[in-house]
Structure formats: C-alpha cells, structure tokens
Design brief:
Number of domains: 2
CATH superfamily of the largest domain: 3-Deoxy-D-manno-octulosonic-acid transferase, N-terminal domain
CATH architecture of the largest domain: 3-Layer(aba) Sandwich
Largest sheet: 7 strands, parallel
Shape: globular
CATH class of the largest domain: Alpha Beta
Number of strands: 14
CATH topology of the largest domain: Rossmann fold
Structural class: alpha/beta
Distance between the termini: 41 Å
Strand content: 5-15%
Helix content: 40-55%
Radius of gyration: 23 Å
C-alpha cells in the first residue's frame, strides 16, 4: 500500500484501532470484489474508486461545478436506491439544475441508480472506510450536502465530512433494537459517527428514540419515504390484463431470500403428495437478489416443477399465453427473473408471502405490496421494517404467522375458502398505503433549511 493509505491519527483510541483494522483488510476486500465479480461483473467496474482513487476523466468530471448545488446521495444497495428514487424528483423540483452524485456499495444498487441519472450527474462507488480513502473521496467530490439513505453510518466517513465542512443528513433513517445494541457496544466509535450527522430524518418515533440513544443529536421524524412511492401504472394495467386470462389465483413468495425458496418448495411437495389443494393455486417466486435467479430456477426444477421465467413471457399475452406452460405436464411455477417489475408481480398476485420474514433476516418492505393493493402474509422476522409490519397488521392489510407451515394454512383459507376476507385485505392494503404519505415533502422542507439556495 502507498504511504498515503496509512491510517491517520484520530481523536479517539477506538476509531484509531478501527482505522488500522480497515486499513489492514484492504487486500481482502480486493479479493472479495474479484470473487463476487465472477458472478456479478458489476463488481469489477472501477475497483480503484472503492479506495478513493479516480482516473483522469472522473477527476475532471468531479472538478466541474455548475451554479446549482451538488447533492451527494449514498444508497448502499437496491432497496435504498429505490427509496432515493422516490425523493429525487422532489429534490430536482426544489433545486432546479441540481447535480446528483450517487454512490453505492453493491452492483444491484449501482445498476438501479443509473435510472436516476441525468446529463451532468455522476456515479461512484462509496470508498472503503479508511481515513485516507474517504478523505480522498470527500476532497474530490466536495458536495454541498450529503444525503445518506437509511442505515449507513461509517465512522471515518462522518469524520471526513466534519473535517471538510460537508453537512450530512441521514435520510429515511431507521434503527432496530439489534443494531442499536451493536452501536452501543462501541460507544466511543459509533456515538461520534451518529452525532456527526447535521440532522437525522427518522421514519418513526421509535426509530428516532433509538437513533438518539445511538448518539444522534438533531433527530426529526419525517416519516417513511416508501409510503410516497407510486407503483407503475403501466405495470399494474398489464398485470390486470394478464390476470383476466388466468384460471387460478396467484400466490407469490415476494423478495425471497436464501433458504426460503427451498423451504417453500419442500412444503408444497409434501402437500401435493398428500393430495391436497396445492395445484389449485398458481405459485410464483420472485427472489430478492438477481444473482440468485438461476439458482432458484434450478432448485424448483429439481423439486419437480416446470419453471416459466418472466423474461420468456410474451408481453402481449403474459404467462398464460406461453407455449411451454400450456403443454407441459409437470406443475408450473413462475419465476420473476427481472428487475424493476415488482408492481407487475404484485399486480398479478392475489396474495404475497413476505420474503425475508420466514428466516431471521428481518423481512422485506411490504409497503410496495400495499401500494399495489396486494395483501401480505408475513412470518415472525420483520425487525427491519417493524413499524410498517405492525401498522399493516393493525390495518388488516397483512397477517402474521409463526412459520411457513402456518403461512400456507392462511393461503388456503384466504385464497380458496374466504374470498370475502381476501377482498377486505386488498381494500385495507390500498387504504393503508394511501393514508401514510407525506414523507417526501417533510424531508425536502428539512433539507431546504440546510441548503437554502
């Protein structure tokens, strides 16, 4: 490593130790990126950016400044980038001509971020959290305001922003009990990092309380941006046309995570062997991460399913018009293997099983399902979206179960035996999403006081 990459002196012993550790593991990070890049080539792009080093073209682009402000938005992965996408149009309206500098840490987040780009905007990897790497980034980027989405709190990054005088805001912020306990185990390291934010805009009162305990100082509740998302009407209209040609209700395992697909397939196989109701339903799986599309397809085929992938459907006729599914004798499982079409999938589904909630992974965002009027059955693990899950259950838009076996019992009851109850859940879902909007306008008001241009 170059001498300039050595850890710099810091104010606290804890951060100095942390800085030495992050400096030492940089070769392992490069190795990890090369390994991940074998499956996801996006990880091989511009690797030096992850260490705060930029080629001549990027340095020149970063040096160019227009009259409008430069807003840096960090969205670590896919979910955070989608949350940022809800806010970006309002930012452009409030600050016409604003230049966005988007940073990400995952290939899926970076790919999704490209949808937000306009001429003059820039996109980088967020650098590794050593003092030297983040210092080079902040000095090169020189943003007028930094927006960090949801949960990304890095001690050296926040110290670099303070040193450079860059105001940073934690936007759509959430913090669950487990993460709070983790932050409190290292108070000398993490409390200054949370305190380093000029302002923290929390999703809920409960999140705000935990963020203050973690060290946040100026914490304001602005609500959850994801309630303000509008699902794609063309996708919902297409889903409605396709649904009209189906002869079975559709149940989807939405944003599934590793282990959940295999568990579902095993339970469906056992139910089918017992001669029960499984084949009266059209099953669909939409994995959370695109790199797992092929693996899930193989799992399903090994379990005896014929897999019909969304990427192979005729857009005019949909899955029902796919020749392969019309003639096959094995049961057909649909696999959502495309990005950016969750509204289409939720629009097709009569009921969704919430991925990430049947393993101890914290659950996925159910607000998008509600906005598409798709009822949800969720497992016991929803700590990543605890407030939304609780509110949805109280509103009648979601049902909570103890495990996947109980979830399938609810599927049978709601989809096949209680259509009136399912319809009531559908209406409650739509109402639940519509009456909790307003986070975008509240967020922009708070940001305007920090960037009054």
């Amino acid at each position: 490593m170059a001498p300039g990459d050595r850890p710099l002196p810091s104010q606290s012993l804890s951060r100095r130790f942390y800085s030495v550790l992050t400096w030492l593991v940089q070769p392992l990070l490069r190795r990890k990126l090369r390994r991940r890049g074998q499956a996801e080539p996006g990880y091989l792009m511009r690797i030096d950016e992850r260490f705060g080093r930029y080629d001549a073209e990027m340095r020149a682009a970063l040096a160019r400044r227009a009259g409008a402000p430069r807003l840096w938005i960090h969205a670590v992965s896919l979910g955070e980038t989608r949350a940022a996408a809800i806010l970006v149009p309002a930012l452009r309206e409030r600050w016409p001509g604003v230049q966005l500098l988007l940073t990400h840490s995952t290939a899926t987040g970076r790919a999704e971020g490209q949808r937000l780009m306009r001429e003059g905007d820039l996109q980088l990897w967020l650098p590794w959290d050593t003092p030297a790497c983040v210092g080079r980034f902040v000095q090169a980027a020189r943003p007028d305001l930094g927006l960090v989405m949801e949960t990304e709190v890095w001690p050296n990054l926040m110290a670099a922003c303070r040193t450079a005088g860059v105001p940073a805001v934690l936007v759509n912020a959430r913090l669950n009990d487990k993460s709070l306990r983790g932050a409190q185990r290292w108070p000398a390291l993490m409390a200054p990092a949370y305190a380093g934010f000029t302002r923290i805009l929390a999703q809920s009162d409960e999140d705000a309380a935990r963020l203050r305990l973690a060290g946040g100082v100026d914490v304001v509740v602005t609500g959850n941006l994801k309630y303000d998302a509008r699902p794609s009407m063309p996708q919902l209209e297409k889903a409605a046309r396709w649904r009209a040609g189906l002869d079975k209700p559709v149940v989807m395992l939405a944003s599934s995570r590793e282990g959940e697909e295999q568990a579902l397939l095993a339970r469906l196989a056992a139910l089918r062997e017992a001669g029960t109701w499984v084949d009266a339903v059209q099953w669909m799986i939409v994995p959370r991460h695109p790199q797992r599309f092929d693996a899930v397809r193989v799992l399903a085929e090994q379990a005896g399913w014929h897999v019909s992938v969304r990427s192979g459907w005729d857009d005019a006729r949909g899955p029902a018009g796919t020749a392969a599914t019309a003639s096959v004798r094995r049961p057909v499982l649909w696999l959502g293997d495309t990005l950016g079409e969750m509204a289409l999938y939720y629009g097709l589904a009569d009921l969704a099983l919430l991925g990430g909630s049947f393993e101890p992974l914290g659950g996925q965002n159910l607000i998008e399902a509600a906005a598409c009027a798709c009822p949800v059955v969720m497992g016991p693990h929803t700590f990543n979206f605890a407030e939304a899950a609780q509110l949805a259950e109280s509103a009648g838009a979601a049902r909570r179960v103890a495990d996947l076996a109980q979830a399938l019992d609810r599927v049978r009851e709601l989809v096949l035996e209680q259509p009136a109850g399912l319809q009531a859940m559908r209406a409650a879902s739509q109402d639940f999403a519509q009456h909790r909007r307003g986070a975008v306008s509240a967020t922009v008001r708070e940001l305007a006081s920090l960037l009054p241009l």
